[in-house]
Design a protein that fits this description.
Blueprint (H helix, E strand, L loop, with lengths): L10 H21 L12 H32 L9 H20 L5 H24 L6 H27 L7 H33 L7 H23 L2 H27 L8 H26 L2 H36 L18 H24 L2 H26 L4
Helix pairs in contact: 1-2, 1-3, 1-12, 2-3, 2-4, 2-10, 3-4, 4-5, 5-6, 6-7, 6-8, 7-8, 9-10, 9-11, 10-12, 11-12
Length: 411
């Protein structure tokens, strides 16, 4: 990656996002003890509050921090105004907290939390669009960033409307709005962002070369078209387009998985480090989640959809984000603290900044907790699920500890 000093944002800015993300990640795992998988259908408010806390506070915070660093790399231009990110973090943290409280206990405050989150996201999107505007000619990767951000903006508009519906201010079709929101934000923004960033980062960290990227492009077009079809179907009640959209998205993700397989085949780095293990773990779970979603459409079993969602969030998103935290944060800390000392004094290697044994413990405990949770879902055993969460909590504790260790690394 070509990252010049002038393009790199201040570490205190990026670091603040990672700190907020880790705090909310730790709280999110702790809150899993409140779930009873035998009564999950009666815990809708708890599920919604937890999902929004996890996605807004952990996933989006991590992505925004990464985009602050990677956007200039992808677009090959400077940020329009990196200082705008200083406002995004506190607003997103406050808005996420209000939304969590709103879904969990006080629906009346949902609209307030929604407005605060909307403002934080709008500032992020405004800065991103103005940065994209500086690009003289869009290439494929910059096009994926543009399309993903357009989906995020539309998803935010739908989210604001939804918050007023849940608050009792508006009376609209909640199911149609919810499905549109999910596909615009989860599939449209998150899906395309993960695809484009994975295309940059995974080959870089695995030292993969000379692979055909046509399948990534097909995945991007299929997923984008699928999202448009699903949203279009909800607006005009044309449900044949809804299922066509589902099919397009599924085919798009299959092409994405095949692209990752090609990247894996051409990788030069043979070391199976913590990054490698988390990536393989996450992609395996992503495939399992897709299979379960397919079974859901055949069997119409809501429990399958819930388990697929659990696998997608905690089996795919958490590991793939964690994998990149173990790579991105050491680089940012090294770049900030030690790059100017090269040639003047001995500086640590990037590998020296990652606590190997601690990261291994975190991975093993998280893996055990996740596998136990799947067994708990199979047997609908809440006692086993609580045991699984205990392992997940220990694994998450190691991850959070490692991130703070790397952020505070002085050499």
């Amino acid at each position: 990656m070509n990252i010049s000093q002038q393009f790199a944002p201040p570490f205190k800015l990026v670091g603040s996002f990672f700190i907020s993300a880790m705090i909310i990640f730790f709280i999110s795992i702790l809150l899993l003890f409140n779930f009873d998988i035998n009564m999950i259908h009666t815990q809708n408010s708890l599920v919604l509050s937890w999902v929004h806390l996890y996605l807004l506070g952990f996933v989006m915070m991590s992505i925004f921090a990464s985009m602050a660093q990677l956007l200039p790399v992808v677009l090959e231009v400077e940020h329009f105004s990196i200082d705008l990110y200083y406002v995004v973090n506190p607003l997103l943290f406050i808005g996420t907290t209000i939304i969590f409280i709103g879904f969990y206990k006080y629906p009346m405050v949902l609209s307030y939390g929604g407005v605060v989150v909307f403002i934080s996201f709008f500032i992020f999107l405004l800065e991103s669009f103005l940065t994209i505007k500086k690009v003289k000619k869009l290439n494929f990767l910059s096009s994926t960033v543009l399309v993903a951000n357009i989906f995020l903006f539309l998803g935010l508009v739908v989210a604001i409307i939804l918050s007023f519906v849940y608050s009792g201010v508006l009376f609209l079709n909640i199911k149609a709005l919810m499905l549109s929101h999910i596909y615009l934000v989860f599939v449209g923004y998150l899906g395309i962002t993960i695809i484009s960033m994975s295309y940059i980062l995974i080959p870089m960290f695995w030292l993969s070369h000379s692979f055909n990227n046509i399948y990534l492009k097909i995945a991007f077009y299929k997923i984008s078209f699928g999202v448009v079809l699903v949203v279009f179907s909800q607006i005009f009640d044309l449900y044949i387009f809804e299922y066509l959209g589902y099919f397009e998205v599924l085919i798009g993700f299959i092409f994405f998985i095949y692209q990752l397989y090609l990247i894996f085949k051409t990788k030069v780095r043979k070391q199976k480090d913590i990054y490698y293990r988390y990536i393989v773990f996450s992609i395996t779970n992503f495939i399992i989640a897709l299979v379960l979603v397919c079974f859901y459409f055949v069997l119409s079993n809501d429990y399958l959809l819930f388990v697929a969602g659990f696998i997608f969030l905690l089996g795919f998103l958490t590991p793939i984000i964690t994998a990149h935290l173990y790579k991105i944060i050491p680089f940012l800390v090294w770049f900030h603290r030690f790059s100017s000392l090269v040639g003047k004094q001995k500086v640590p290697m990037l590998a020296d900044m990652v606590p190997v044994k601690s990261s291994d413990f975190g991975f093993v405990f998280y893996l055990l907790g996740f596998v136990l949770s799947l067994i708990a879902f199979i047997f609908t055993s809440d006692i086993l699920f609580k045991s699984a969460v205990s392992f997940l909590f220990v694994g998450a504790s190691f991850i959070v500890k490692d991130v703070f260790y790397i952020i505070n690394f002085k050499g």
